[in-house]
């Protein structure tokens, strides 16, 4: 099974805790409220149409104009974003020498760290 699907299922199963972690990082995530991708200007980062819609939902959530109906949707969309940024960082599309990428990483990495710690602590 592809990593993305495994991570999405994990997010569904742990939605309540993930949303608590997200809410504890709202100040850190503020730079994402109006961020656009550098090439196509999609919400947060340039991505496929499906992911861009999820990332727009995240921006709406951060701007308190969200239409999320449940915690599972919030958790899975945020985990999709983190997975995308992580993949871009390790596989080439994000760089420490670009200001916009550093801003994105500074917003996302604390959340990634906390979610990783939570996953390690709760997985047996």
Task: Give a verbal description of the structure.
The chain starts with a helix and ends with a helix. By secondary structure, it is mainly α. It is built from six helices and no strands. It has one domain (3-122). Helix 1 (3-13) packs antiparallel against helix 5 and helix 2 (15-23) crosses helix 5 (71-91). It has helices at 3-13, 15-23, 26-29, 49-62, 71-91, 99-122. The longest helix is centred in the last third of the chain and has 24 residues, at 99-122.
How far apart the termini lie comes to 20 Å
Largest sheet: none
Report the portion of residues in β strands. Answer: under 5%
| Global Rg | 14 Å
Return the string of H and E elements. HHHHHH
Spell out the key features of this protein.
124 residues, mainly alpha, globular
Write the layout of secondary structure elements.
Layout: H1 3-13, H2 15-23, H3 26-29, H4 49-62, H5 71-91, H6 99-122
Helix pairs in contact: 1-5, 2-5, 4-5
């Amino acid at each position: 099974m592809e990593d993305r699907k495994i991570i999405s299922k994990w997010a569904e199963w742990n939605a309540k805790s993930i949303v608590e972690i997200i809410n504890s990082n709202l100040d850190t995530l503020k730079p994402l409220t109006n961020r656009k991708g550098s090439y196509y200007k999609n919400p947060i980062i340039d991505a496929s149409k499906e992911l861009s819609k999820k990332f727009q939902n995240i921006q709406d959530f951060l701007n308190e104009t969200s239409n999320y109906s449940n915690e599972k949707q919030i958790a899975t969309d945020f985990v999709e974003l983190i997975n995308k940024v992580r993949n871009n960082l390790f596989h080439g599309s994000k760089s420490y020498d670009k200001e916009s990428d550093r801003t994105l990483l500074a917003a996302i990495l604390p959340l990634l760290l906390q979610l990783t710690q939570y996953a390690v602590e709760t997985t047996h």
